[in-house]
# Entry
Amino acid sequence: MDKSDTRQRIIEAARRIFLQKGMAGTRMQEIADAAGINKAMLHYYFRSKEQLFKLVFAEAVKEIFPKVEKALAGDLPIREKLLAFVRAYISQIREHPFVPLFVIHELSNRPTEFFMEPEKSGAPQKMLQKLMQEIIHAQQRGEIPDYPPQHLWVNILALSIFPFIARPLIQQLLQMDDKAFERFLEERTAQVARFLDQALRIA
Amino acid sequence: MDKSDTRQRIIEAARRIFLQKGMAGTRMQEIADAAGINKAMLHYYFRSKEQLFKLVFAEAVKEIFPKVEKALAGDLPIREKLLAFVRAYISQIREHPFVPLFVIHELSNRPTEFFMEPEKSGAPQKMLQKLMQEIIHAQQRGEIPDYPPQHLWVNILALSIFPFIARPLIQQLLQMDDKAFERFLEERTAQVARFLDQALRIA
DNA sequence: GTCTATAACATGATAGAC
DNA sequence: GTCTATCATGTTATAGAC
# Structure
C-alpha cells in the first residue's frame, strides 16, 4: 500500500469521525480503526490529533463558507441571483450534510485566528460585501423590499442551512422518521425558493 | 453551607460549562472549580458525569422544545399567531442563547430514548400537530399561501433560531464585531416578523 | 458534607524492531 | 511504512479521614 493511499484513507476516516463527533468527542483509536491501520500510523503521517483536526476543519470551512461563488458572480437580476444561490447552496450542503453543524460547533469558543489567516480578509467576505451593495441598489430601484441586507442574507442562509443542522430536533418535533425526512429534504429547495420569492415581492 | 445551596451551585456551574463545551469537551474538574468545590463533591451529589449531564440536558431540552405554548394556545388568526410565536420564541432564546446549539449538537448521534421517555408522545408534538391543522384550515380559507405546513414551520424555526446557532459563522461572514452582532440581534425580532409577514401575504 | 489521596482506566504520543 | 509495546499524562470515580 503506497504512501499517498494510506494518507488519504486516514484523512477520509478522520473526516467522517470528526464531523460526527467533533474534536473533543473523537478518539484517535477510532480513526485508526476506521482507516484500517493502527494509532502509530496516525502520528507518523500527522504529528498530532490537533494537526489532523486542523486539516479536516480547514477543508470543512471551505465547504461551508459560500464557495458557491458562481451563483453570486454573474450579473443576474437580484431576485434570480438570490434564488440561484439558494439552489446551489442547498445542493452543495446536501452532499455534505454534517459539515454545517461541525463547523459551527467547532467555531464556538475558538479564537478567530484558528481557522483564518489574518492576512487575507477572505474571498467570501468580499463577495458578500459586493452582494450587499447589489441588494441595496436593487432596493433603491424598488425591485425588492427594503429589508436590511444583513437580515435578508441571514434569512437566506437560515432557510437553506437550518434543516441540516437541526435535523434531530425537526424529526422529533414533526415526528418524521428517516424516510420522511429524506422526502422533506427533496422538497426543500423548491419550497425555500418559493418562500423566498414571495418574501421578495414588492408590496 | 447547606446542602441544597451546594447542589444548586453545582448544577449552575455544570450547566454553564456543558452548554459551552458539550458533554465530551467538559471536564469534571472544570465544573468543580467553577462551583468552588472539589471533584469528590460532584460524585457525592451526582453519581457520575453522565447523570449530571442528563440533568442539565433535560432542562435544556425543555427550553428549546417550544414551551412557548401560550403563543400557540390562544385562538388568534393564524398570521397573528405565527408572528406571536416568533416574538415569544426569539425572546426566550435570547435569554439562553447557547441552548439551541447545545441541544442540537448533543442530540446528534444519540438514540431517541436518551432524551425522551417513549411513553408520552410529548406535549410539544401534540401542540404542533394542532397548529398544522390550523395552518391547513387557514390555507383552505385562503388566508395564507399554501406552503406545506411542515416547511412553513421549519422556516419559522429557522428564521428564529439560526442566528443564535450560527453566530460565529455570521460574524465572520458579515464582519461583525460583538457589539455589531448585539445590535443585529436587537433588530432581529422585528425583521423576522416583517419577512414572515410578507411571505404570508396572499399573492 | 467536605476534604485529600489515590485507584482504575482511557488516551495521546513515542520508541524501536521489522 | 508499518507494526507492537510502552510511556506519560489526564480523567472519572472511589476510599477513608475529619
In short: The mean pLDDT of chain A is 93. Chain A touches chain B through 62 residues (CB under 8 Å).
